[in-house]
Design brief:
alpha/beta; D-Maltodextrin-Binding Protein, domain 2; 5-stranded mixed sheet; globular; signal; Solute-binding_3/MltF_N; ABC transporter substrate-binding protein
């Protein structure tokens, strides 16, 4: 469920949603992202336990620190977002904690701007990036990507589709997307060139771009934009959290795996991949996906640098 067409994906992003009243106000830029209390599941997940054989793979410098520093852009509910108390929660957060536990470590999950995460990995500011990144060959040139989920792109409009939007033809329409996402790249690299070739008006500005996906959703609900493009689990979640103000149009398309970002050729790569596979095998992985209502994206085998495009 990534938000690209048939071109290589650069990013996978989702939408985080704030409390219900937020979506009834005019769109404005927000300095932080938050999720509604109703968004937090009540189900719990059994804590993962350390696997000595996997812990033995952890590099000495990481082991001595006792933690994994994990970067995430906490604006993509239900994958990663902030709850009403400001705590970073979501599927990726629970998986990060479980991976760390398998390796005998604690997860230190830090909020970061999406576009700063991969550079932060390269600069050794973070050890892992878990923020709905699509695994791509382009990314694999600079970092290792460990697959753990499958996602695809989806499109949402106001309930009832008042502008009669055709998901296959967004030419000339006002489309909200998050900056740096696969959806933004799809508009710039695929949809708008196709619009020009067809003699149609392109999507204005290569999309109405926001740094937070919360603002993308607000822009659609407030009527600033006519369409929202995001990852399918995020669109599905947005429909629920906006109390029927939005609807999905068309099918989910261009599915591809999400990948955990690790420094290129890092000793951590094998350890993290093994931890993901162990969580799949012992059922913890399924519990986490079930908790957040995203089990449709489950995978059976975690791979390293397995992008097809």
């Amino acid at each position: 469920m990534t938000a690209r067409t048939l071109r290589p994906r650069l990013v996978a992003a989702g939408a985080a949603l704030a409390a219900g009243s937020l979506f009834l106000t005019a769109c404005s830029s927000s300095s932080s992202s938050s999720g509604s209390g109703a968004a937090t599941p009540t189900s719990s997940v059994k804590a993962a336990s350390a696997d000595p054989s996997l812990a033995a793979l952890v590099p000495a410098d990481v082991k001595s620190g006792g933690k994994l520093t994990v970067a995430t852009d906490a604006s993509y509910a239900p994958n990663e977002f902030k709850d009403d108390k400001g705590a970073i929660v979501g599927m990726d957060v629970d998986l990060a904690k479980a991976i760390a536990a398998k390796l005998g470590l604690q997860a230190d999950v830090q909020n970061a701007d999406f576009t700063s995460i991969i550079p932060g990995i390269a600069a050794k500011k973070y050890q892992l990036g878990m923020s709905s990144f699509t695994d791509t060959k382009e990314r694999e040139q600079t970092v290792d990507m460990i697959t753990y989920f499958t996602a695809g792109s989806a499109i949402a409009v106001k309930k009832g589709n008042p502008d009669k939007i055709d998901p296959k033809d967004l030419c000339g329409k006002k489309v909200a997307v998050q900056t740096g996402t696969t959806q933004a790249d799809e508009i710039k690299d695929v949809r708008n060139p196709d619009c020009v070739k067809a003699g149609k008006q392109p999507i204005p500005g290569d999309g109405d771009k926001f740094s937070l996906q919360t603002d993308v959703t607000q822009a659609l609900v407030a009527g600033r934009d006519q369409v929202m493009m995001a990852d399918s689990p995020v669109i599905d979640y947005a429909l629920k959290q906006t109390n029927g103000q939005l609807e999905k149009i068309g099918d989910t398309y261009d599915s591809a795996p999400y990948g955990i970002v690790v420094a290129k050729n890092s000793e951590l790569t094998k350890a993290v991949q093994g931890a993901v596979q162990s969580l799949i095998a012992d059922g913890t992985y399924k519990q986490i996906l079930d908790k957040w209502g995203v089990s449709a994206g489950a995978i059976a085998t975690s791979e390293v640098n397995a992008a097809k495009s």
